[in-house]
Write a structure and sequence with these properties.
- It is a single chain.
- By secondary structure, the chain is of the alpha+beta class.
- It has one domain (3-75).
- The chain has helices spanning 3-6, 13-19, 24-36, 69-72; strands at residues 44-50, 53-58.
- It has a two-stranded antiparallel sheet with strand order 1-2.
- A hairpin with a 2-residue loop joins β1 (44-50) and β2.
- The longest helix is centred in the middle third of the chain and has 13 residues, at 24-36.
- This is Type ISP restriction-modification enzyme LLaBIII C-terminal specificity domain-containing protein.
- It holds the Pfam family Type_ISP_C.
- InterPro entries: Type_ISP_LLaBIII_C.
- Residues 27-87 form the Type ISP restriction-modification enzyme LLaBIII C-terminal specificity domain.
Length: 90
C-alpha cells in the first residue's frame, strides 16, 4: 500500500516529496502530519471521489487538504446521501 510509505521512517522527507510530487503547502502539511501520527488500519476507507469513481482514502484529518469532517462523519457507515445542485436563473 502506498500509504505505508508515508509512515516508513527510513524514507527521508525529500524522497517522499519526489516520490509523490508534493508541492509547497501540500508537501509541508504531509511532512508535519507524518511526524505527528502513526499508521492506523481503521482509517483506510472507501470514498466516492466522483460519481461512479470509488477510491480509498486514509481518513486522517492531518493528511487531508479539505476533509469536511463535520459533514463526512455521517457517511462513515451505511448512510447514503443524494447530492444535487440548485440551479439559479439570472
Amino acid at each position: 500500500m502506498r500509504i505505508l510509505s508515508l509512515f516508513n521512517k527510513s524514507l527521508s522527507n525529500e524522497k517522499l516529496e519526489v516520490l509523490y510530487e508534493l508541492k509547497s503547502q501540500a508537501g509541508e502539511k504531509t511532512i508535519k502530519a507524518r511526524k505527528l501520527t502513526s499508521f492506523n488500519q481503521n482509517l483506510i476507507r472507501l470514498y466516492c471521489y466522483r460519481p461512479f469513481d470509488i477510491r480509498y482514502v486514509y481518513a486522517e484529518n492531518k493528511f487531508l487538504w479539505r476533509s469536511v469532517e463535520t459533514l463526512s462523519k455521517h457517511f462513515i457507515f451505511e448512510n447514503r446521501a443524494l447530492v444535487t445542485t440548485r440551479i439559479l436563473a439570472n
